[in-house]
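note to self — DONT lose this again. spent like an hour looking for the file last time. sequence + predicted structure for the chain T wanted, 180 res
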Amino acid sequence: MATSNSTIRFSLKANRLLGRETSPFKAQVRSYKTIGREEMLADMAGMNASVSRQEIIVVLDLMKAVMQKYLLAGFRVKTDLFNAQLTVKGGFASEEDEFDPDRHTVRVRMAPAADLRKAVAHDARMEKIRDEEPEPELDRVYDFETQSKNGTVSPGHIAEVKGANLCPANCTHKKKLNYF
């Protein structure tokens, strides 16, 4: 269960966007884990013993159905948690052009409500962490000159290195690699 005493972890990454001259780094939030419906239901039920888990499920399902009903009718939805509205993606060739599902997409846009946004910003406690770079993990080094494993490697001769994370950070290989 998340508490108000929790900290939000972040690390710094190179800023590749406009403005990097004045801000060469940007913060990237590092989530502990993703919380799903089941964890949220358990947390809500634990906060109010008079409301059952099943009642919470019913209320959430009803809220989703009502939101869908209003959005499909073309309404904006404003709650104390979020604001939702529809947008249409895709261009129109002229004023006479009609909606075409092959060229246009209806999207639901959601944003946190102002009160929620302000409360989180006000109560947030931040903790800067260092990103852990993956380190090479050697499984085996084989020296072809001496035909020995995991010992001293003969200078100027071929050796085989097996292990994980042997590839540089920008490498596209995901499997264990062999280097000769």
